[in-house]
Amino acid sequence: MDSISSSSSSSSGIDEVTKEKAAQVIHAGTKMAGDTLVTSGGRVLAVVVTDKALGQAAARATQLAGRIAFEGATFRKDIASRAITTNPLRFRGLTYKDSGVDIDAGNEFVACIKKVVAGTSVPGVMGGLGSFGGLFDLRDTGFKDPILVSGTDGVGTKLKVAQTAGIHDTIGQDLVAMCVNDVLVHGARPLFFLDYYSTGRLEGKVAVEVVKGVAKACSMAGCALIGGCWRETERDT
């Protein structure tokens, strides 16, 4: 909304602005003198615009206010500026990418690993990658009254070695090996594996190499990679 002040005079441009979509002119100090709209001075008009984003509404209201002309007319150009400056993302719309998640990069990453993941399939695997959950039918294993043993682990500081060497597939193999060992000590057989990949910024080439290592180790252990999750935790803007 922009308010327009004036000394006493006749006004023009109001009808045109009123016809604009999602715009309204509010009168406070005007009257008709015959066929002419005149103002009484002071703050006499306000231009109001509605929009999904505050910044766009404010900019358009200012632009439309400038189209109303009469002698001595002045109008404010700073209305809503403080709110927009304080929290710009709120008023221009927040996207996944703004918050640190590149959906396009994630989809490209998943497309690159689908074939590798599918190559680890074993009897019992149901569905495919990207279904927000891994399905496994225990009846296909041939076990009678099976008991599931679950475990989880992380690569820890060995990640620094992989980063320094620039070799990332072996870190994926190491991750699977530690989890498989934890299951084996219970006398159990590894059936399936789910990974969790967290990074500040998703670098597709590195992520694919890590998952290739995970898939290779799963194949060596005779278990299937049936799903996982990638997460971007921080992004420079």
From TrEMBL:
Name by which UniProt lists this protein: Trifunctional purine biosynthetic protein adenosine-3
Q: What GO molecular function terms would the record report?
A: phosphoribosylamine-glycine ligase activity; phosphoribosylformylglycinamidine cyclo-ligase activity
Sorted alphabetically, the Gene Ontology BP terms of this entry are: 'de novo' IMP biosynthetic process; adenine biosynthetic process
Q: What single Pfam family name could you report for this chain, choosing any that match?
A: AIRS
> Which organism's genome codes for this protein?
Chionoecetes opilio
Tell me which SUPFAM superfamilies the record gives: PurM N-terminal domain-like, Rudiment single hybrid motif
Q: Which InterPro entries match?
A: PRibGlycinamide_synth_C-dom (IPR020560), PRibGlycinamide_synth_C_sf (IPR037123), PurM-like_N (IPR016188), PurM-like_N_sf (IPR036921), PurM_cligase (IPR004733), Rudment_hybrid_motif (IPR011054)
Any one GO cellular component localisation term in the record: cytosol
Q: Which domain of life is it from?
A: Eukaryota
Query: Could you tell me which residue ranges the Phosphoribosylglycinamide synthetase C-domain domain spans?
Result: 12-84
